[in-house]
Write a structure and sequence with these properties.
single chain, 169 residues, mainly beta, nine-stranded antiparallel beta sheet, 1 helix, 9 strands, 4% helix, globular
């Protein structure tokens, strides 16, 4: 058995083991940003986020990609689906994919990146989420790369937002 590669010293986000044993009630993904929310029966919510993503300075377009089983679960559900599944395993994993650039000459390389992988006790199938960066020119992808993702808790405010009424004079 091969020894697993150590994670970087500066790990971003939370230990994915924190969601093991929790009952997932809903999965949603943003239509505008590369993030996915995992809503649990205990009223906690965790997000799968792209490391270094800044909504103000987006840079190259980034997207979350996932295995076909998870993708088909979310397809046709407007990015949101109700589920009732217990997370039995969850971990950060290292993936290796072929990145490329093809502006003048085709250039390809292997790129390691971090994904979030999890299993549900109901189906015992590994599901994985990772991030891609891509640039298109005239409808053709001329650059594709990968980026790390991580898990972090979404903290909800206990105060409800009130709309501001215009002040009258």
């Amino acid at each position: 058995m091969r020894r697993p590669l150590p994670l970087p010293l500066q790990v971003v986000g939370m230990d994915p083991g924190i969601i093991v044993g929790k009952v997932l009630t809903r999965i949603s993904r943003s239509q505008k940003h590369p993030c996915m929310q995992l809503h649990f029966a205990d009223d906690t919510c965790y997000q799968i986020l792209v490391d270094g993503y800044d909504p103000v300075h987006r840079g190259l377009p980034k997207a979350l990609e996932m295995d076909p089983n998870l993708e088909s679960l979310l397809d046709g559900a407007d990015g949101q689906v109700k589920v009732d599944r217990t997370v039995s395993h969850c971990a950060l994993i290292t993936l290796t994919d072929k990145a490329f650039e093809s502006k003048q000459r085709e250039h390809r390389w292997d790129q390691n990146h971090t994904g979030v992988a999890f299993k549900f006790s109901e189906d015992q199938v590994w599901h994985c989420v990772w991030a891609t960066l891509s640039d298109h020119e005239n409808g053709t992808c001329i650059f594709r790369s990968y980026h790390d993702v991580y898990l972090d808790q979404l903290h909800r405010s206990s105060h409800k937002r009130r709309s501001r009424a215009p002040s009258s004079r």
